[in-house]
Amino acid sequence: MSTTIHAPNKVASTSGKPTRRLANRTRTKSSARSNETPVDQNSDKQPANIQQHEANTDAMDSMDDAQKKPTIRDVARLAGVSYGTVSRYLNGNTHVSQDAAERIAAAITKSQYTPNNAARSLAQRRTLTVALIIQVESNETIAQASMSRAMAGANQVLGDAGYQMVTLIANSEDSTRRIAQLVQSDFSDGYLLFSLSEDSMLANTFASVKRPVVLSEVRERENLPFPAVDFTNTEGQRDITRYLLDQGRTKLVYVCGPGYSPSSNNRFDGFKAAMGDRFNERHVYYADDWEGTSGEMAVVEFQPMLDELDGFVCANDSIALGVINQLNRFGYRVPDDIAVTGFDDSPIALLANPKLTTVRQDSQLHGETMSRLLLSMLQGDIVEPHYVQLLPTTIAERQSA
Amino acid sequence: MSTTIHAPNKVASTSGKPTRRLANRTRTKSSARSNETPVDQNSDKQPANIQQHEANTDAMDSMDDAQKKPTIRDVARLAGVSYGTVSRYLNGNTHVSQDAAERIAAAITKSQYTPNNAARSLAQRRTLTVALIIQVESNETIAQASMSRAMAGANQVLGDAGYQMVTLIANSEDSTRRIAQLVQSDFSDGYLLFSLSEDSMLANTFASVKRPVVLSEVRERENLPFPAVDFTNTEGQRDITRYLLDQGRTKLVYVCGPGYSPSSNNRFDGFKAAMGDRFNERHVYYADDWEGTSGEMAVVEFQPMLDELDGFVCANDSIALGVINQLNRFGYRVPDDIAVTGFDDSPIALLANPKLTTVRQDSQLHGETMSRLLLSMLQGDIVEPHYVQLLPTTIAERQSA
DNA sequence: CTGTTAGCGCATTCAA
DNA sequence: TTGAATGCGCTAACAG
Q: Region (Disordered) spans which residues (chains A, B) (predicted)?
């Protein structure tokens, strides 16, 4: 077995560094380990070989190490100015004399001062962070390329504007509830909500929130609680279906994504729109997720009538890959016998054999656009809840159709 | 073109809700739009049709809406107690009379009070958050299933312990610098550092940090700055190589991952270990990334000698899929002519044709274990920097080898 | 240009 | 059990 678990080395003292200076006033620090531990800490599964030290001087030392961070006052004292001046210096702009600035700068490096986030946020009443909240049914959803690209795009735009993006994952009732609380407590200045599910538990939470929110998907524009940015899912799927129809392929099966997903439903609408009268409810496979195995199952389901079919239009690329693989196994040639299309243009589209013809969407742009909208709201622009911006989709023509 | 961009509706007033009560003392709120905007806000790419309102009463109203959140004092006043009592009530435990508790509860729901995060953090000197920091060269790395599974695992364990996991992405110099600052300012109580790169710019930043840190990868145990949890990458790759050797396949090519990745290098070590004297430096393809296209390129590179080869051992699943596809295109049968193995056991292993034989690692466990270690450190346990915990890997035997 | 002062909202002593 | 007071570290208004 390749199951080597290295026994960890024995534990040494916390560090060789000398204890810090700057310890003038003696702090009150009772509560010597009682409420150090937060709620619900279940410490039963402790890794072995870790020194479980009880409340002793060592503990104090390590705590001190964490607490004795120099403050703005220490810097002021060192520089021989009032701490108001230091604050001004730190906030860049206002009038500080050359002389004072230099002394402060020196004092800062000498004391290794770093500002405290919480204090700043409290005084300014803003955190300079934007939370990107991902609400998912399945953890696999986070792994989708579109998601990480959107995150990258948002991270870039928000970062350039001076905001730090922090992403929170709501994948259970607990985590959703916890995040809901945070949102109510002004954890961030604004929120990008990737609620990949229609019955959003979070929606209610957000209803009363006083900070700007932007959504990533929209199904019904009418009762949209917040502005949103989405793709032209419907048009994209409609167009690629027409693309097949134009080739004379009319016996099409649709493999639908999970019913809780707005995008999934919008894409399905697009397929129906293109098919018109030719739409056949029995030529639809309803998947529970976005995974490749669902595509395989779809093909198995339709095996008896495979000879009469022209193509599979799939809700996304993973499903399409599953379809292609299963068709290959059954001995059908793609696209000669049966064409297959996907949606997303994720990297795996290129790993398909034959390479996947799919609907391309620029997910990075998605994140960027949502962020720009949020930023404008953070600036004070008022955007009505029904505001929707739709991003274009195009057909990426490859080999599978 | 399927490029429908809906023109957004015109803008309405911010909300129909009446202005809030609780406005006793008149606030000083000068700075009427000047420094509302944070640093570097480049507002040139504003979406159209959004009312860019200037400083007027509307702006004030919306600002007020965000600010007039009730505080603990408002609750106290409503309940007829001192705000100290309310604080005690909120923090669960200590002595509060039944009577007072009920009145406070009523006051809270009536005033819609929600605590303020920053104030709490400041007073408690802890945030009850743990930051999971992903430092990547390529954004595609975030999309890997292993990453999202680790995140899910960490989110679960940390959440159960009362901590909120917040993930930060460092994918540029700017973002890395920004995150480094946050870390210095006690943004979170602890850090899970997924530094998927050896020359970590963050490492220096973290060197002086006073909060617990756990790493996700380890190359050299000796000079490890923090405790780490990793997989038995070396043993895993060694074992699957032996698995091929035991089949009599000795003419093996290794497709190496990016050189900046510890895991990549460790896996390479494993291959070499298994090959021993048979290791041939010229039978190695050094990829720059973890992508499938690199696998394809590797096969192209070795095309002239493909007939003499027994198998491809790949640094991860994506690369392996690229190898399989390219071999298929060249008319080689997998595994009959040439075997192919991967590493990770990600979902795409099942989308390969034939299905991929690979090294399995439990990435969710990775996130969980890192989190448990961090939690123990947050409790005060002292873990020496060289502490390393290695998680097992096993062979997932399928069809490709 | 700079020092002083007053909070930001909450936790936590200390008396009562 | 509770009220009052102090401080967390910093920002921002106001005098000077």
A: 1-48
